[in-house]
UniProtKB/TrEMBL annotation:
Protein species of origin: Haloferax namakaokahaiae
Protein name: Adenosylcobinamide-GDP ribazoletransferase
GO BP of this protein: cobalamin biosynthetic process
Regions that span the bilayer: 33-52, 104-127, 190-214
Main location, first listed in the record: membrane
Recorded metabolic or biological pathway in which this protein acts: Cofactor biosynthesis; adenosylcobalamin biosynthesis; adenosylcobalamin from cob(II)yrinate a,c-diamide: step 7/7
Membrane topology: Multi-pass membrane protein
Function as written in the Swiss-Prot or TrEMBL entry: Joins adenosylcobinamide-GDP and alpha-ribazole to generate adenosylcobalamin (Ado-cobalamin). Also synthesizes adenosylcobalamin 5'-phosphate from adenosylcobinamide-GDP and alpha-ribazole 5'-phosphate.
Length: 254
């Protein structure tokens, strides 16, 4: 069951060539603990350029490029849609209409552009905290940020209520707060990573995911009437970008 759900998670959350089916999708959407497990894979793959003996700027660029080659742009598209909805004047129904609009407006461009700039600057910090051919703080923070971002998505899936019928409701409507235990269990290996490299920076980076999820859940409940698929995707992007900076700052001050 776990392996089936994991395959479904890889198929849904990444662009990796994993065969999927209705069975793997159903297993995944009922198993939010798989989100952090996929985060380990994405974080490790994205961090490969940080291992290599490259200039800092090249390592940072390689991290960002590899990240989106692995994950695709689905979650980034959710962030852009949410940016458009955030600047709309009107009630929840009006904002939901904007979320469903395929065109991207100024709010979406600004939200996505600022987040990508923040991510790229954070990647410079990761590259500066990394050394060639070793599991260093920068690599560990990159993995922790991704696991935390996916744990944030899982948190929303467990505590949110559907804003409307759609992909988001297929996830949110199938899970409750009792599934958070599985999310926490899947995140436990980060404690070992913290002991080996990064210390408190790893835990701080991870914590950004659930914290951003709580903030996004509150915003979504007040402005959208619940949790949508775009809100879940935006949580991933915002949590990752903030986690990298928080992790590097904590590591620098430690």
């Amino acid at each position: 069951m776990v392996l089936t759900a994991f395959r479904g998670g890889l198929g849904f959350l990444t662009r990796l060539p994993v065969s999927g089916s209705e069975e793997t999708w159903d297993a995944f959407r009922r198993s939010p603990g798989v989100f952090p497990l996929v985060g380990y894979v994405v974080g490790a793959l994205a961090a490969i350029p940080l291992f290599l003996p490259l200039p800092v700027a090249t390592s940072a660029a390689g991290y960002v490029v590899t990240l989106y080659l692995v994950t695709g742009v689905t979650h980034a598209d959710g962030l852009a849609d949410l940016g458009d909805a955030a600047v709309v004047h009107g009630d929840a129904d009006r904002r939901l209409d904007v979320l469903k609009d395929s065109q991207t407006g100024v709010g979406g461009v600004l939200a996505l552009g600022v987040t990508l700039v923040v991510l790229a600057l954070g990647a410079l910090g990761l590259a500066g905290a990394s050394g060639p051919l070793g599991l260093t703080a920068g690599v560990a923070i990159a993995v922790a940020a991704e696991v935390g971002a996916k744990a944030g998505m899982a948190t929303l899936v467990c505590i949110g209520s559907p804003a409307h019928e759609g992909l988001g409701s297929a996830l949110v409507g199938e899970n409750g707060t009792d599934r958070l235990l599985g999310v926490a269990f899947a995140s436990l290996p980060l404690a070992l990573l913290a002991a080996y490299a990064g210390g408190w920076a790893i835990l701080a980076a991870f914590a950004c995911g659930p914290l951003v999820a709580l903030a996004m859940r509150s915003w979504g409940r007040n402005r959208l009437g619940g949790t949508s698929g775009d809100l879940i995707g935006a949580t991933n992007e915002l949590a990752r970008a903030s986690a990298i900076h928080i992790g590097v700052v904590v590591w620098t001050l430690s």
